[in-house]
Amino acid sequence: MTTTELHYDVRDVRGEGPVLLVVPGGAGHPMGLDPMIDALTDRFTVVTYDPLGLAHGRLGEPVDDQRVEAWSDGAWRVLEEVLPEGESACVLGTSAGGVAVLDLLARYPERLRHVVVHEPPCVGVLPDGDRQQAMFLEVYDTYRAAGPQAAGARMGAGLAEREPVGPLDGQPLTREEELANPMAIFLAHVLRPFTSYVPDVEALSGSSARLTLAAGADSRGQLLHRTAEFLAERTGSSFTELPGGHIGALEHPVAFAQRLVETLVPVAGPPASSTT
């Protein structure tokens, strides 16, 4: 593995509290998450990982196609830097960040106390996984042909498990425009590798006591709600609903944080040894 610079922020109003690592979705840019993080800092030391450094001065710099394993390796390195000796962390991963967190738990479970994964788009686990992965490839092709707005419309229809309505028209972005737009970076360099990733169900089943799959209450009947429920069943893990939809952390940050705390704390308990 090539060692790269780590980008993350640490926030804790009280100056104490167990570590909660947050791995955002999209291209990993934590934009819009401050209200949720603020609501969590009374209980946790919140460490927000920014895999591509987009919020740390790297927006606009070249980006290659991303690898799930690179994000989870980086998340593990962050935990190695911030965790006190002998302690373990809670983790929240949302959307693409949730895919990375599933890989983190499968490969590096030693110092993870409880992991909540919200609507990960790892649709390959589903009985109709091939068809759903093909849908995300259509989203990518639409982005390349007609830009992010048309791709967003195609993806929105796919997540709702319906066909798009009307033509998907638009203009592709220049390379410079793409690199300045976190959503475009996600569509260009994160969408395909992360939606094609298939979690290690056997490894996750062995860590099922430390894994909760989550979906938005407003996402019922949609693809990623179905994915989270199915993966919870396959791994023997818990399933819960959090407020809002796929971007519930942005839509209802305080309520989302409160429900997240309720989900984490019963499992989190006192700090666990890194050897357990």
TrEMBL record:
Keywords: Hydrolase. Coiled coil: none annotated. SUPFAM superfamilies: alpha/beta-Hydrolases. It holds the Pfam family Abhydrolase_1. The keyword Hydrolase applies. Residues 18-154 form the AB hydrolase-1 domain. It comes from the Bacteria. One of its GO terms (molecular function) is hydrolase activity. This is Alpha/beta hydrolase. It comes from Streptomyces cylindrosporus.
